[in-house]
Structure prediction request, 221 residues.
Amino acid sequence: MKTLNTATLTRSFLTALIFLSGIAKTSAQEQARINVLPALLMSFSAANNNSAGELDWTMENQTSCKWFVIERSANANGFDSIGVVLGTNNTHSTDYSFTDNHLLSGNNYYRLRQVDMDGVSKYSKIVCVYNANIAVAEKKMQLYPNPAIATLNYTLNSPAASHATVMVYTMSGVLVIAQQQQLATGVNQQSLAISNLKSGNYFLKVVSQNGTQYDQSFVKL
Prediction:
């Protein structure tokens, strides 16, 4: 019977350890590669549905998304945030949708800003919806910051000095804030406390005493 000496056994043992270590290292590298695969935006589309902007998008391999901020522009340059959709993290395909019930007159350009858990943002391509129904178009009012946490500022141009009613609605039409403010002729910069609102999507409406109305969506974080 052949007997293996100690040196031979030691070499065999070390060879096995090196082989197993290589497998473990390869497996760890493969797992790391899988964990950092980027989320893929498979599709993003927009359509005009009875004077409302219907946005639909599909994500795949989404594991670190916090939320999507929906941004809109009248000229594809300066974008305003009009809503937030929370992310659903999984390794499968996930469908999302958002409805813009307050279209601008003419072209409405949209893009998605995906915000990850680490705060990093990624932008989608830009899609467009055309609105020919001027009757439902908003008068221009700028909101900032949007999304907002405690205070929402708005800027609008009033044709005359007047009292104005400032109202905030949920997207389902429930009135949650109503107060009076004074508007001066020309550009007005006003602030509104929103810290008591729950996180979500809202709609700000300002109606002046002379009947001029301003509408804009915003997001409360």
About this structure: The helical segments are 6-35. The chain has a mean pLDDT of 81. The longest strand covers residues 106-116.
